Amino acid sequence: MAWIYLVIAGVFEVVWATLMKASDGFSKLGFSIATVVGMVASFYFLARALKTLPMNLAYPIWTGVGAVGSILVGVWLYKEKLSLATWFFVGLLIIGIIGIKVTSKH
């Protein structure tokens, strides 16, 4: 169950980052409130995952999922452009996340 919590936490991290962009510097109340709700949900599920998983495993995976997810949302939703070199490093992030999981004992 801890892994499910960790994935949900990572998804909510992407959600709140996306909503923060939509809040336009916290100038749009609805998006600002939704950002905070997303943050609370992300931290809640991360805390649940940390009850079972070690921090040195859960935290980097959570941030990695959030980073890669936010990059993909930026490209898809906001039409942000990435260079080929940047895509290479995104791939390294994904490999790093997988490597952390595969080499852990959990």
From TrEMBL:
Compartment annotation: Cell membrane
Pfam annotation, one family: Multi_Drug_Res
Keyword Transmembrane helix included in the entry's annotation: yes
GO cellular component annotations of the record: plasma membrane
SUPFAM superfamilies tied to this protein: Multidrug resistance efflux transporter EmrE
Membrane topology, as annotated: Multi-pass membrane protein
Transmembrane segments: 27-47, 59-78, 84-103
Family from the record: Belongs to the drug/metabolite transporter (DMT) superfamily. Small multidrug resistance (SMR) (TC 2.A.7.1) family.
PANTHER family reported in the protein's UniProt record: GUANIDINIUM EXPORTER, SMR FAMILY PROTON-DEPENDENT DRUG EFFLUX TRANSPORTER SUGE
Protein's UniProt name: SMR family multidrug resistance protein
